[in-house]
Amino acid sequence: MSAVVRLADVEVGTELPEQRYRITRADLVRYAGASGDFNPIHWNERVATEVGLPGVIAHGMFTMALAGRAVTGWTGDPAALVEFQVRFGRPVVVPDDDAGAELTVRGTVAALLDEGRVRVDLAVGSAGEKVLSLARAVVRLA
């Protein structure tokens, strides 16, 4: 865990360190086991393409969780996250190779709220495409 971010150290425009996460098919299998979501679009190329997807895609909630990890990693305290919302814009296509897909998460403090809270707006992308829209987190800082 990183050092805890303090409210006095942030202002509107403060940028979170960019985070990059590698997502492989093995990660999707592990996430399916943990979440109970065994939908074949997350592991079977044939099924994914038959339903019109470009290939096997990451679970939306897994993508969201990685974006949340970027925020909690920045705060240094997972309990600091008090609100989190996203819209799923595009799927993260995960190729069947050792490289997988890369998810990039950037964040900017967009507003200082009351009670030591700040709103962080996130930009989450993969393969040059925005995959999460309206991604926002509210965190309570010390």
From TrEMBL:
GO CC terms: fatty acid synthase complex
Pfam families linked: MaoC_dehydratas
Superkingdom per UniProt: Bacteria
Domain MaoC-like: 18-107
GO molecular function, one term: fatty acid synthase activity
Biological processes, Gene Ontology terms: fatty acid biosynthetic process
SUPFAM superfamilies (UniProt xref): Thioesterase/thiol ester dehydrase-isomerase (SSF54637)
Family label: Belongs to the enoyl-CoA hydratase/isomerase family.
Protein name as annotated: Acyl dehydratase
Provenance organism: Blastococcus aggregatus
